[in-house]
Specification:
The protein contains 15 helices and twelve strands. It has 392 residues and is α/β, with parallel strands linked by helices. Helix 11 links the parallel strand 9 and strand 10. The chain is elongated. The N terminus and C terminus are likely disordered.
């Protein structure tokens, strides 16, 4: 029996197979999963020129790829050439699209609310980058406590005077992280991994703020204290770490007002999104000494970095490589393909982002349909019975 007619196939022999729009580079790490997908679904894989925004939008308008039911972007570094997935783009998608699954944990580049309005579930690569980003956070934490940036800059200068200056002066402002308090904003997968690592490796005290509190056993495992009001947590924080998602708009979290509530001499680390930070306010706080140091893996205007902070020896910078590990790429690939496969087969997605919004939209549709039926049933002028077509 051919794969097309396999009993496990989500379509019957007489119906067309569901179609997946595959964006970006070929599969590298999970060929067996891709082979399984290809045996049950038709996969459309446009060439790179078709992914540039003008061409991409025009292909959607023209229906060049047919009525596909899923969108799959397994690689973070390619497949996003069309830019923001905003209302302009989303409203051009075929009506049959059920799911869009992408590499990457962040989703500030896609309007997940607009996708939900169209009944489209968005799935990210949550979990795949947790270990890598958690490790990068630890590196930035040790750097801001132990003055790593001025130390390695002095060493790499090959200048003996700079070497001896760093050797003799940096210990006076370097501290061990042990017994210092790490305040985490956002204790999701990555935030919790940082808490585990910082507690185990450095013996740090963990306090956190999130819109959803962790279970008591999870808090106990890292000896974490929850603060429902972030302003109550800030004055107790020796190092503030951002690990919360950005929705791509609105006011930054770290502003001059927030910084003012942190103790003088505290530190800041961002492994979330650069747009969550007012970088001018952060630079001012570093200049004034209110903040002792900062570690930034992400930046507000990537690929550009803040020029003021780039010149500061007490600022550690990396190139948004927190999740940059082979294991992360493997996980991104796997999750994108498996999320699409599960949704098209009628199963629950592994890493849904906007499932609640999609459910709300479906409930609204059902209520609209029921209201429509009720109107028909009370229509004494039509002379016909309600047909119930509006009920989902």
């Amino acid at each position: 029996m051919s794969p097309h007619h396999s009993p496990s196939s989500p379509s019957s022999p007489s119906s067309p197979r569901p179609r997946i729009l595959f964006l970006g580079d070929d599969i590298i790490y999970n060929p067996a999963i891709y082979k399984r997908l290809a045996s049950h679904f038709d996969i459309i894989h446009p060439p790179p020129p078709d992914l540039q925004r003008p061409a991409f939008l025009q292909n959607l308008r023209d229906g060049s790829w047919g009525n596909f039911q899923a969108i799959m972007r397994p690689s973070w570094h390619t497949g996003g050439e069309m830019g923001k997935w905003d209302r302009e783009l989303i409203e051009l998608l075929p009506p049959g699209v059920k799911v869009s699954a992408s590499a990457g944990a962040g989703y500030d580049w896609v309007d997940v609310g607009c996708l939900a309005e169209h009944g489209i579930l968005y799935c990210n690569g949550a979990g795949a980058s947790t270990e890598a980003v958690g490790d990068m956070a630890l590196w930035h934490i040790i750097s801001v406590f132990r003055n790593m940036t001025p130390s390695f800059l002095a060493a790499r200068s090959t200048d003996p005077k700079q070497f001896y200056h760093a050797h003799h002066t940096l210990p006076a402002t370097s501290y061990n992280p042990r017994n210092h308090t790490l305040g985490i904003v956002g204790l999701g997968n990555i935030g919790y991994a940082v808490a585990e690592k910082a507690r185990a490796a450095f013996g740090m005290k963990i306090i956190y703020h999130d819109i959803v509190r962790k279970r008591r056993d999870q808090e106990d495992a890292v000896d974490a204290t929850f603060y429902p009001i972030v302003q109550d947590m800030l004055p107790l924080t020796d190092c503030l770490l951002l690990a919360t998602p950005s929705t791509g708009g609105g006011r930054p979290f770290l502003t001059a007002d927030v910084i003012a509530q942190l103790p003088r001499g505290s530190r800041f680390v961002n492994i979330a999104r650069g747009t969550l930070v007012d970088e001018d306010a952060l630079a001012d706080a570093l200049d004034s000494g209110h903040l002792a140091a900062a570690g930034l893996d992400v930046h507000a205007s990537e690929p550009s970095v803040n020029e003021r902070m780039a010149k500061m020896a007490n600022v550690t910078m990396t190139c948004h490589t927190g999740g940059g590990a082979v294991e992360t790429r493997m996980g991104f690939e796997r999750l994108a393909m498996e999320n699409v496969e599960r949704v098209l087969c009628g199963k629950e997605a592994l890493t849904p982002v906007n499932a609640g919004l999609v459910r709300e939209r479906m409930m609204d549709d059902r209520e609209d349909g029921l209201d429509g039926d009720s109107d028909h049933s009370h229509d004494t002028t039509s002379g016909s019975e309600p047909d119930g077509n509006g009920v989902v």
